[in-house]
Amino acid sequence: MQPAPLLWHAGRVCATAGSPDALAAAAEVSLRVERPGARRVTRVAAAGACGDALTVHLAGCNLACAHCWAGPEREEPARAGFLTHLELARKLRLLRAENRLGASPDALRLSGGEPLLSELSLALVADLLARLPGRLFVETNGIALGAHPAWARALTAHGPRLFLKLSLKAATPAAFARITGRDGAAVELPFRAAAALLQAGVPFDLEALSLEPRLFPPGEREALHARLRAIDGALPGRLREETLTPYPDTSRRMAALT
Ligand code: SF4
């Protein structure tokens, strides 16, 4: 597959030359990185964000966040090759057996790009959980999930072995557009995702870089808390607030944030 041309949008290079609509972009990126039973994978590593989980870095995302730490495969997913779900599970099993990365044998994490782009993404989650023991942590921006609340009900089939980490980029349309490079209307979708996960009973928590003033200016953090309280009074208690870590790709992208 030939890589699509890149597009400068809101001062940054986007994941594809497609729509500035975050949901439409999810479908476009899915076409580039997902096939039935296969996914473009950048690499596998061990990382600390979910304990010492073995982490699958996926290529491609429907957002273009200024704070993103993912490598250039975010914008150019064709740099990464396809692995079938079976090949990926075999690789992960081998890495666990060799223990060269020192990762937990009980925890796996999908991150690096957006793991939940389409129904094909749900199949990857199901296949990994079926083929590997332990828990699976999925770090998602919640855009496609928020538009498809039925996915949350489907994810309950995995019980407590599946844990979602839902990343909230902003509380208001203007801040969302500035940070993600996508139309601000999509700011609603991650909140809808949180409501759907809560209603379905899927284990999850929330993350936001709300302690970083370059991303959350005065008032935005309070607006975020208020939006969560409006969904459920207990939701702010699930929010893990962070400052920015200056990973090389984060610093490169933040330099373009206006
Ligand atoms: S931070 Fe996450 S949601 Fe944002 S562009 Fe990077 S991978 Fe996508």
Q: SSE string, helix = H, strand = E?
A: EEHEEEEHEHEHHEHHEHEH
Number of separate domains: 1
Helix content estimate: 25-40%
First-last Cα distance = 34 Å
CATH topology: TIM Barrel
- Count of β-strands: 11
Radius of gyration: 17 Å
- Beta fraction of the residues? 15-25%
The CATH homologous superfamily name equals Aldolase class I
Structural class: alpha/beta
Instruction: Name the hetero compounds present.
Output: iron/sulfur cluster
CATH architectural name: Alpha-Beta Barrel
Mean pLDDT: 90
Number of helices: 9
Query: For this structure, what is the CATH class?
Result: Alpha Beta
Uncertain regions spanning at least 5 consecutive residues = 1-17
The coarse silhouette is: globular
Largest sheet: 9 strands, mixed
What is the compact description of this entry?
This protein has 9 helices and 11 strands. With 258 residues, it is α/β, with parallel strands linked by helices.
Structure, described:
The chain has 258 residues and is of the alpha/beta class. It has one domain (8-254): TIM Barrel. It contains nine helices and eleven strands. The strands form two sheets. Strands 3, 4, 5, 6, 7, 8, 9, 10 and 11 form a nine-stranded mixed β-sheet that branches. Strands 1-2 form a two-stranded antiparallel sheet. Mean pLDDT is 90; it is low at 1-17. Bound molecules: iron/sulfur cluster. Residues 61, 63-65, 68, 70, 74, 113-114, 141 line the site of iron/sulfur cluster.
